[in-house]
Amino acid sequence: MDPRDSLPTHMLVAGTTLMHARPWNDNPVQLDSPALAVMTDLTQIKAATTDPASSLQQAEQAMVYLGVRMLFVLSQMPQLEGLITTTDLHGDKPMRVVNQRGIRHDDLCVADVMTPLSMLNAVDMDVMRTARVSNLIVTLKAKGRNHLLVIGDGPGAPQVRGVISRTQIERQLGMSIEIADVAGNFAELGQLLSHN
């Protein structure tokens, strides 16, 4: 094609839809497969994000639209403040906050129920290079988490390079993984005990 030629175009018709991205990797894995085979690599897939001031309904709509179960929470790019998952939205956390503060559920925002940065578990990329899928499952179970973050090996402040998701592992492994709640600190322990 001549570099001076205009490209042929056409008008769109009713019923045209938006194409959705497929998961970057949905190849089957085994327990002894490399851990990197189930990591969502944020250098390849754009991270799904939300603002801490967004309503819970806005966060849920974003998850549905993007086809994800977790959003990174950032008030200013690229500073990570935490993450919010479907479990945070639909678990008992929103009702606990409503009861503690005496507010309406509709008044809650992402910051009220997200998991803050200080409570997130991460694995170094160097460790991931030699780990197996089975190691990830053991770690998720030990921490009582559905997600692990992978920290890259770049210079300066730590950077999240990837995400390990229980759902992604289950999809690729072809089996479900049961994970029990594990308290991350004394406050969480007290909340778990008060609900049992």
Give structural notes.
- The chain is of the alpha/beta class and 196 residues long.
- It has one domain: CBS-domain (Roll), CATH 3.10.580.
- 31% of the residues lie in helices and 18% in strands.
- It contains 8 helices and 8 strands; from the N terminus they run ββαββαααββααββαα.
- It has helices at residues 56-66, 86-90, 93-101, 110-113, 125-128, 133-143, 166-173, 186-194; strands at residues 39-41, 49-50, 70-76, 79-85, 115-116, 122-124, 147-151, 160-165.
- The strands form 2 sheets. A 4-stranded mixed beta sheet has the order 1-8-7-6. Strands 2-3-4-5 form a 4-stranded mixed beta sheet.
- A hairpin with a 2-residue loop joins strand 3 and strand 4.
- The protein is globular and about 65 Å long.
CATH fourth-tier homologous superfamily: CBS-domain
* Rg of Cα set: 20 Å
CATH class reads Alpha Beta
Shape: globular
For the record, the count of structural domains works out to: 1
State the CATH topology.
Answer: CBS-domain
Mean pLDDT: 86
Annotated CATH architecture: Roll
> Strand order of the main beta sheet, please?
1-8-7-6
Oligomer: single chain
Poorly predicted runs of 5 or more residues: 183-196
Q: Per DSSP, what share of the residues sits in E-state strands of 2 or more residues?
A: 15-25%
Q: Would you tell me the structural class of the helices and strands?
A: alpha/beta
> How many strands appear in the DSSP assignment?
8
Distance between the termini: 70 Å
- Helix amount: 25-40%
Q: What are the secondary-structure elements, in order, as H or E? A: EEHEEHHHEEHHEEHH
Number of helices: 8
